[in-house]
């Protein structure tokens, strides 16, 4: 195996430290005076600041999200550096504080795309944006009892991905590789994240059809490579040879798992993951990962920025759109060794060009609640 996994862990640690140091002089820790508006959306904002609020610049998934946001701002004649990066490092409190500070600094003249980090944080983010008269489009995390249309036009849209079915599909691929028997461990994301919950549910759904496979353990690895490495090492100590397959909630978790397996001299352990990052797709091509799932984060990042911006400047009025345009699923593709090379050529070797005014073209319909 190449050394990129070890290099990735080291790079991730360095990047996280650098961003934490940089934030000491940034917007997140600066008290910026400002008075929020009366909570009413303005008819249209003028040249709003575009921002992306997200977890981790060291993670390839979030790099792809931001690249989409940058591609969008370039499409409206700005430089990609004009996109404001609000990096919360997995803190919902920092996510909300950063957004409030940005709104105060620009008197609400903001078009924001955001992953609220955990589901309960979506409401206070939306409330802050509405109070300031800004606009926000969110992805991934919100609770089922709150909706963009509850906030007039200011909460423009929410996009998530229907992760349960693809995660179930990767689990079935894993179980077949295990010969339909044995023990599996699951390394998940942040416990309160919607995708973490759905990906674990997908695994559990598949287990119903494989009575000879036992779920030995399922623990959160917080989407983090180093935590995944440590957790997998603990699993190997605790369960040893009982583990015959590993279900990972994302690609960066899988990198940590593979490194832990390598450290114990274990080869050929079936592993599946999620996100469809370039390095993971290469590992699928090599047979080191059985399958991963691509959610087109570049498109997701760009279209979320586009929706908030075009709503802000009055190109369309969110409250006049049907609910399936306010809450919708993004696209997903399961990638196996059979189709990995073709997928890589189409989506990763070159970036597809998107029409950022085609707001719902690649989407997969309105969100369905159970």
UniProtKB/TrEMBL annotation:
<dbReference type="InterPro" id="IPR006311">
    <property type="entry name" value="TAT_signal"/>
</dbReference>
<protein>
    <submittedName>
        <fullName>Substrate-binding domain-containing protein</fullName>
    </submittedName>
</protein>
<dbReference type="InterPro" id="IPR028082">
    <property type="entry name" value="Peripla_BP_I"/>
</dbReference>
<dbReference type="Pfam" id="PF13407">
    <property type="entry name" value="Peripla_BP_4"/>
</dbReference>
<keyword id="KW-0732">Signal</keyword>
<dbReference type="InterPro" id="IPR025997">
    <property type="entry name" value="SBP_2_dom"/>
</dbReference>
<feature type="domain" description="Periplasmic binding protein">
    <location>
        <begin position="53"/>
        <end position="314"/>
    </location>
</feature>
<comment type="similarity">
    <text>Belongs to the bacterial solute-binding protein 2 family.</text>
</comment>
């Amino acid at each position: 195996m190449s050394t990129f996994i070890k290099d990735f862990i080291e790079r991730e640690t360095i990047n996280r430290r650098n961003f934490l140091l940089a934030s000491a002089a940034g917007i997140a820790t600066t008290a910026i005076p400002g008075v929020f508006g009366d909570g009413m959306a303005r008819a249209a904002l003028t040249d709003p600041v575009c921002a992306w609020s997200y977890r981790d610049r060291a993670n390839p998934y979030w790099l792809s999200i931001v690249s989409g946001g940058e591609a969008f701002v370039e499409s409206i004649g700005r430089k990609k550096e004009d996109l404001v990066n609000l990096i919360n490092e997995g803190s919902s409190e920092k996510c909300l504080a950063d957004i409030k500070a940005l709104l105060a600094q620009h008197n609400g003249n903001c078009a924001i795309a955001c992953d609220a980090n955990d589901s309960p944080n979506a409401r206070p983010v939306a409330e802050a944006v509405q109070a300031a008269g800004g606009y926000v489009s969110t992805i991934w995390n919100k609770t089922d009892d709150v909706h963009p249309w509850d906030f007039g036009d200011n909460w423009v849209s929410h996009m998530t991905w229907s992760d349960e079915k693809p995660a179930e599909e990767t689990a079935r691929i894993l179980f077949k590789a295990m010969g339909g028997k044995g023990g599996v461990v699951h390394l998940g994301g942040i416990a309160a994240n919607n995708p973490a919950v759905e990906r674990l549910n997908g695994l559990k759904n598949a287990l119903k059809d494989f009575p000879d496979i036992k779920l030995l353990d399922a623990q959160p690895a917080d989407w983090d490579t180093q935590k995944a490495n440590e957790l997998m090492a603990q699993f190997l100590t605790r369960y040893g040879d009982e583990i015959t397959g590993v279900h990972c909630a994302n690609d960066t978790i899988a990198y940590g798992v593979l490194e832990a397996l390598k450290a114990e001299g274990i080869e050929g352990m079936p592993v599946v993951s999620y996100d469809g990052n370039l390095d993971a797709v290469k590992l699928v091509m090599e047979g080191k990962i059985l399958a991963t799932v691509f959610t087109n984060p570049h498109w997701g990042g760009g279209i979320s920025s586009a929706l908030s911006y075009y709503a802000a400047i009055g190109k369309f009025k969110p409250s006049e759109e049907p609910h399936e345009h306010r809450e919708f699923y993004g696209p997903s593709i399961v990638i196996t060794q059979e189709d990995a090379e073709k997928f890589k050529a189409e989506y990763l070797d070159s970036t597809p060009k998107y029409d950022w005014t085609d707001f719902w073209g690649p989407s997969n319909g309105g969100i369905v609640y159970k």
